[in-house]
Every structure is written in structure tokens, then in C-alpha cells.
Structure to design on (138 residues):
């Protein structure tokens, strides 16, 4: 009887441990992830005030699902929702020639670089999609 109880207890433990919640949580940043140029003549404060009134800006996001890939997809979907709200023509007026600001969603790789899942580059001539993966903060 003792053996049977031990065996049942063993299999019960395996069953309970095997059915545990297997979720992954990843943290992302959404906002200005990088910029290029001197930013000497751009109106950085005006840009930040304007964009933060339109979308989620310079905030942390967390997503939980069964894999990092699913969380990445959720972060990109959230970014797409935010990007649809942007008044890009207005935001570009704050950027001086030669400067660019990257609004995107990604995660920190080091103290000075981001892996950007998706981003939009704002410049004095308009916007375009950020087509690289890594951005280094100056």
C-alpha cells in the first residue's frame, strides 16, 4: 500500500508540474529610441510635447504570452495602433534639416543601443519606416 501511495504521489507531482503555466513576459520601450544629427536647431521639446499628446511616448510596455515571438508581435501591433494616430506632417515641422528622430518600439540591448522591432523616422522632409534592427543612442 505504501508503494502504491508513493507511486501515485510521484505521478501526481509529475502531472501537476508538467501542466504548469508556461508563459513568457517581455518588456519593451515605445518612444524616441534614437536620433541622428546634431539636434541643435530642431525643436526637441516641441516635438516631445506634440507627439506625447498624440500617442504613447517614452513609456515601458510589458506583454505576456507563450513565447517571445508572440510578445514581439503584440508589441508591433500596439505600435501600429499608435502610429495610425500620428500627425506626421505636424511632427516633421519640429525637425531641422539633417536631423532625424526615430519613434519606435523595441528593447534595450545595452545602455546605449536598442533592438527596434518597428519604427518611424521623422525628418524635415517627411517620414519613412526605420529599416534597420539596431539603433545606437548618441
Amino acid at each position: 500500500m505504501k508503494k502504491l501511495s508513493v507511486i501515485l504521489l510521484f505521478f501526481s507531482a509529475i502531472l501537476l508540474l508538467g501542466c504548469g503555466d508556461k508563459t513568457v513576459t517581455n518588456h519593451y520601450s515605445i518612444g524616441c529610441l534614437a536620433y541622428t544629427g546634431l539636434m541643435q536647431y530642431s525643436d526637441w521639446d516641441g516635438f516631445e510635447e506634440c507627439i506625447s499628446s498624440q500617442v504613447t511616448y517614452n513609456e515601458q510596455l510589458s506583454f505576456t504570452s507563450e513565447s517571445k515571438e508572440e510578445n514581439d508581435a503584440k508589441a508591433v501591433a500596439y505600435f501600429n495602433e499608435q502610429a495610425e494616430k500620428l500627425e506626421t506632417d505636424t511632427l516633421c515641422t519640429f525637425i531641422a534639416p539633417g536631423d532625424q528622430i526615430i519613434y519606435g518600439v523595441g528593447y534595450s540591448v545595452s545602455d546605449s543601443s536598442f533592438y527596434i522591432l518597428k519604427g518611424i523616422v521623422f525628418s524635415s522632409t517627411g517620414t519613412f519606416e526605420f529599416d534597420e534592427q539596431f539603433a545606437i543612442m548618441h
Notes: The chain has a mean pLDDT of 87. The longest helix spans residues 2-18. The two ends are 70 Å apart (CA to CA).
